[in-house]
Amino acid sequence: MTGSEKETQTLLTVEEQVGVRKRRQVTGTVRASTFSHEREQSVEADLSMETLEVERVPIGRFVDGPIPDRQDGDTTVISVIEEVATVEVRLKLVEEVRITRRTTVGRMSDTVTLRRQEVVIDRDPALEEDSEV
Fold it and tell me: With contact defined as beta carbons under 8 Å apart, do 125 and 132 qualify?
């Protein structure tokens, strides 16, 4: 080989790759349990209980204006009022509407057009002979 000629060589390279896979595998079981222990203990405490009595007292009289809430000893008094409209209603006859039913019988004549559809089916005997083959 001469110096002007170049010799070509091909070298093979190898590349390694790694892949990681995981899988689950049961290697044992664990059981957890809880236990409760009970004991009694005395407890003492002072308790205060408050009750309310509600009494409704009907009054039924007209007043000139709202009455503010007031305290009468241990009792709170709340006055409940309502507005009452007083209207005088009288009836006045304005008119009467009178409806009378009358029936008349008569004969009528007219010309109407009626339509009817009909279906006709034709068979080709030559095609029927071919189909029997």
Answer: no
Predicted structure pTM score: 0.33
- Asked if 68 and 76 count as a contact pair (C-beta separation under 8 A), the reply is no
pLDDT in tens, 81-96: 998 888 878 877 778 7
List, for residues 10-69, the tens digit of each pLDDT value: 777 777 777 878 888 877 777 778 888 888 888 888 888 888 899 999 998 889 888 999
Cβ neighbours of residue 67 under 8 Å, at least 6 residues apart? 79, 81
